[in-house]
Structure formats: C-alpha cells, structure tokens
Amino acid sequence: MTLPERNTNLTKRVTRLGVVIFPGSNCDKDALDAIGRICGQDIKPIWHRDTNLDDMDAVILPGGFSYGDYLRAGAIARFAPVVEKLIAFADRGGLVIGICNGFQVLTETKLLPGALMRNEGLRFICREVFLRVERTDTPFTRNLQSGQVIKFPIAHNEGNFYLPSDELKKLEKNQQVLFRYCDAEGNVTPKANPNGSLNNIAGIVNIKGNVLGMMPHPERRCDPLLGEPDGVGIFESVIDSIR
Amino acid sequence: MKARVYIRLKPAILDPQGKAVLHSLQQLGYDEVKSVRIGKLIELEIDNSDPDVMKRIQELSHKILTNPLMETFDIKIDEDDAA
C-alpha cells in the first residue's frame, strides 16, 4: 500500500503551526501528520514545558489524556507552562484549536465557556458521528459550506457539553456554536446526540472567533485511506486564514 | 493538620453515576433510598505555619480542585489528624 501524495494544491510556505504535546497526549502525531503530510505545511511539535510561542500563527491542543486526566479532564494541563503562554497568545489574536482533550483544556483555561462532563450514558464512546456546520465566517470553517454535513470520529468519556442556561442563551445568541451533532441528513435531533451535550453542541468558538474547541477529531479524517477527508477542510481553512 | 475538601456536583447538574447507583439500590430492595449524588473527597496534609492557611486552601480549592461551573466544595479541618 502506498501513502497518498502530499497535497500540492497548497503552496508551501513557512506557515507557523504547532502541536502541543502534554504527557498523556495521544493524537499529537495524527495532527502533525494531517497538517504536515496531507496539507503539506511545516508544523512542529511544542513540548508542554516550552514557553515560546512568539513565532506561531496557530497552535493545536491535541486529543489524549493529558496528565492522566486526573482530577478533571484538562484540569492539570491548564496550569502547564505552555498553556499560560497560550492564553496570552490567544489574547493577541493567535489561532488556537483544541480537539477533544484540547477542548477540555480550553474550557478549564476559560478561553472557552462551559465544561465537558461525563457522557450521559457513562460510557467511553468511540465511533463516527455526523456534524452540521453552523458558521462559515470563521478562520476554522471558511472553506466549508454552511449547513454542510461532515463525518468525524469521536473518542471520549467526557464530552457532555454543559453551560448554565443563561450563559447557553448568550452562546447561541452570539452564534458561537460551529458544529452540532446531527443525523446523516443534517437534522439536529436528540437521537443524533451521542453524549448528552446541551443543544447537540460538538464545537464552539470564543467571542473573538480565534479559539475553537471541538470534541470530534478532524485530524483522524484527513487521509483519504480513512474515508472522506472532511478534516482537511478545517485545517486548510486555518492555513488559508494565516497565509 | 489535615484539610478535607468535599466536592459535590451542583444541584442543577445531572449525576448519571448517582442515578445508576440509585437504580441498583432500588433493585436490591432498598426502597427507602430516594436519591444518590456522588462527589469527591480530597485530603490535604497541610503545613500549618502560614497564618493565611485557610485562605490559601479556599483559593486552591476554587482555582484547581474544583470547576466552579459545575461543582461546589466544603472544607473540613482536623487539627490533630497528622497522618
């Protein structure tokens, strides 16, 4: 079996993307591969003790079980040296993507509102889900279509998005929801909700629109060997935004 | 001294774990149990020399040990309990 060729539609340049590696991260290699090999960009790993993000345009917090998920998922990673710097980086307008455990870390930092609680069914869920794209005017979704249905895997035990009802109203009013769990036709139904998340929320952005958190894994849907490469649309949006 | 931090889910938060235990208890005939909520207990050994020690335990409980969005906490101090 031969691996797919690097995507040559994108001009290679010195993009400045990084993937943070915490002790216990396990999707860092997938993200490096998706953006490096598939999207043809320069991307580098960032160790959790590194404190220099000055030359970065976009930083990814990958999936996994940072620090064993002890105490609460993301709670200990939130105080890692690199995360303290990441908060300043986001405040300066740098692009941040938290995937799965990365999303949990971003809620603990308060860069994103809400909390990810234990799945309603008390089980670790590892399967593919459909998502409806709610907004395309963000750096993360500009190459996608509004209302488009995409398919990504989820693999989590704490993905049940919670926010007190008054804050949830604000989140919806500000159109901060980028992705919702839906069925294959794009209908957002209780049945299509895998984990009990309020309003079927799978991914959100901050008010400024430069910090994304999502439970599903776009980096696992970039190599055509693994199915329709819907994840490329998200990473190419980011690359186009910073080019 | 020993500080015990009792962490509970806020009343508005669903506790599927507690619900599963309640269901199991009722199946076993413990009909008198009407509700189960599951929390956490974290024990801290504290060097008591700092006069601000209570303030600091409050602070670390709020900042690290709990997520104030979904959890509340109570601190109980045992001065004699050294181990």
Short précis:
The complex is a heterodimer of chains A (243) and B (83). Chain A is an alpha/beta fold and 243 residues long.
Layout of helices and strands:
The complex is a heterodimer of chains A (243) and B (83).
Chain A: E1 17-21, H1 28-38, E2 43-47, E3 58-61, H2 81-91, E4 95-99, H3 101-109, E5 115-117, E6 125-133, E7 149-156, E8 160-162, H4 165-173, E9 177-182, E10 201-205, E11 211-214, H5 231-242
Parallel strand pairs in A: 1-2, 1-3, 3-4, 4-11
Antiparallel strand pairs in A: 5-8, 6-7, 6-9, 9-10, 10-11
Chain B: E1 2-9, H1 16-27, E2 40-45, H2 53-65, E3 71-78
Antiparallel strand pairs in B: 1-2, 1-3
The secondary structure category of chain A is alpha/beta
Assembly state of the chains shown: heterodimer
CATH class of chain A: Alpha Beta
Low-confidence stretches of chain B: none
Biggest sheet overview of chain A? 9 strands, mixed
Spatial extent as radius of gyration of chain B: 16 Å
* Termini Cα gap of chain A: 33 Å
Number of distinct helices of chain B: 2
Our estimate of the beta-strand percent of chain A is 15-25%
**What's the average pLDDT of chain B?**
92
Strand runs of chain B, count: 3
At CATH level 2, the architecture of chain A is: 3-Layer(aba) Sandwich
Cα-atom radius of gyration of chain A = 16 Å
Largest beta sheet of chain B: what is the strand line-up?
A: 2-1-3
Helical content band of chain B: 25-40%
Written description of the protein model:
- The complex is a heterodimer of chains A (243) and B (83).
- Chain A has a single domain, classed as 3-Layer(aba) Sandwich (Rossmann fold), CATH 3.40.50.
- In chain A, 21% of the residues lie in helices and 23% in strands.
- Chain A has 5 helices and 11 strands.
- Chain A has a 9-stranded mixed beta sheet with strand order 2-1-3-4-11-10-9-6-7, with helices on both faces. Chain A has a two-stranded antiparallel ribbon with strand order 5-8.
- In chain A, strand 1 (17-21), helix 1 (28-38) and strand 2 (43-47) form a beta-alpha-beta unit.
- The model of chain A has no long low-confidence stretch (mean pLDDT 94).
- Helix content of chain B is 30%, strand content 27%.
- The longest helix of chain B is centred in the last third of the chain and has 13 residues, at 53-65.
- The model of chain B has no long low-confidence stretch (mean pLDDT 92).
